[in-house]
Amino acid sequence: EVQLVESGGGLVKPGGSLRLSCAASGFTFSSYGMNWVRQAPGKGLEWVSYISSSSDYTFYADSVKGRFTISRDNAKNSLYLQMNSLSAEDTAVYYCARERVVTIYGVDYWGQGTLVTVSS
Amino acid sequence: NVLTQSPGTLSLSPGERATLSCRASQSVSSSYLAWYQQKPGQAPRLLIYGASSRATGIPDRFSGSGSGTDFTLTISRLEPEDFAVYYCQQYGNSPRLTFGGGTKVEIK
């Protein structure tokens, strides 16, 4: 069974940093590109960042470029999101999402999310 | 590319037909258009990919159609568990995933 379990969310002050983790299991993690998608309270879905299966390339939303860094450790079946210079606009549930580009071209599995709250 | 979903909210009764629209500002390959369902407190769930193919385990009352800039998600007869928010999504390079603003299907 595919499982994605996020952790690392919490309350952080504006300007602070946080590192999110996503533990993957039930599939060959190193074969899949991965995304972070966030959802501000009461709002829609916003794509944040993507990393290819072997970390060859990464992409970021303009809203987080230069502040967030996505990475992965295929030996540990883990995905990460380092978030710096956080502001209130970054308050959201952050989802780890497995991407399928064969046929689906979207997300076939999502984690349950971890809440990041940026507030003084 | 901007995806605009309409209506923002759809108020219907169980058993009725729901028609949700997703309009793109630029043409989208049908292969790259997906739909998701999200219930309160839950992660989204993939419903439709390739504009019209149902994901594994999705009942056949859900159907997708469309091409170019206009796509539609239809729920033929609403079941109580179908009241949720629905998002369309386009796959690209960067941004990798572009989501519409969502349509909430609520009980009338």
Q: Could you explain how this protein is built, in words?
A:
- The complex is a heterodimer of chains A (120) and B (108).
- Helix content of chain A is 0%, strand content 52%.
- Chain A is mostly beta strands and 120 residues long.
- In chain A, strand 9 and strand 10 form a beta hairpin.
- The model of chain A has no long low-confidence stretch (mean pLDDT 97).
- Chain B is mainly beta.
- Chain B contains no helices and ten strands.
- Chain B has strands at 3-6, 9-12, 18-28, 33-38, 45-49, 53-54, 62-75, 85-91, 97-99, 103-107.
- In chain B, strands 2, 4, 5, 6, 8, 9 and 10 form a seven-stranded mixed beta sheet that branches. Chain B has a three-stranded antiparallel beta sheet with strand order 1-3-7, with no helix packed on it.
- The radius of gyration of chain B is 13 Å and the shape is globular.
- The model of chain B has no long low-confidence stretch (mean pLDDT 96).
- Classes of the chains: A mainly beta (120), B mainly beta (108).
- Chain A binds chain B through residues 35, 37, 44-47, 50, 59-61, 95, 99, 101, 103-108, 110-113, and chain B through 31-32, 34, 36, 38, 42-46, 49-50, 53, 55, 87, 89, 91, 93-102.
